[in-house]
Amino acid sequence: METAIDVLDERDRRLVAALQCDGRLPVERAATVLGLSARTVRRRWSALFADGIVKVVMAPQLPDGTRVMLLRVRVLRGRLDAVTKALAARDDIPFIDVSAGGDEISAIALTGSGPRNRLVFEQLPATSAVTSVTAQTVLHVFRDAADWRLDVLTARERAALAPRGRPGSAGPLDATDDLLLAALADDARASAASLAARTGLPDSTVRRRLTALTARGALRTLVVVDHRRLGLAVDANVWLQVPPDHLDEVGRRLAQHPAVHGALATTGQANLHAAVWLPDLEALYHFITEDLAGLGIHSVDTVLVGTAVKRPGHLAYRSGSRPSSSRARPNSNRLSMLGPAISSASSRTLG
Fold it and tell me: SUPFAM superfamilies of this UniProt entry (predicted)?
């Protein structure tokens, strides 16, 4: 049985959208821009954080030389849980969706720079539960989850709420910067005092470094919230086949669409991937038949997500009836080359 999801009211959705503009946004500035009292902003944010509805984390940063691959894994229905659990336990798989039909796993794999990935070329094909594997390398990111903005603020409000800095305006980070960013990983709104206690750095150093990191655009945050709480009940992956001379234009157009929280150019016949959140199936139909019309797209393959098993910063949530035993684990940027056995009953493993 599906569990009813309470949609946040307009005020709370606007407060979530304000955090998307700047994960460390001060209460006073949010109150001024949104036309609320500071007391209201502080009280509502505290409630959203305390109830686990909203979490602000640092956007994941990949190690230099990391390649990203999109995997589509077809699985025998009776073995879906086992394969999903094995993939979710891997540090090099930060993102897993299971289709509403229950027969396909969509995943993101982080790989090295070598020509062959052991998971893709050896482990998955050798698993008796897997019937097919499609792997596409990401060539260009037009939009990722940290770039997505809930469409409830005006352009003027977003500009006023954005961090005041110039991304990329300074040189590389040093060890102290890295230490602070690591301390902010799971709670990007941690106070300077708590960061000082956690890192052992002087409070004055923490405050000065945070100001500098903000000014140079190095504090890139991600607001973690169940999209259904925002009134976006439909989660879908859309695979598009686009002619090469239209690929960049279509990718940029999709990146500006309010429903698209991920837009990636990839290798393969379906060379553009879009991840979308929409209010209902009628809105998805409108997106496919109208918003994508006239862009020169040759074909569209739409897969509804039934269960988001693992996403950066998220715990697993259920929007369908399976898989019953899947659980997410916190994401890590470490690349693990070995995965656990699918189950004791399986003759093949992913490790």
Answer: Dimeric alpha+beta barrel (SSF54909), Winged helix' DNA-binding domain (SSF46785)
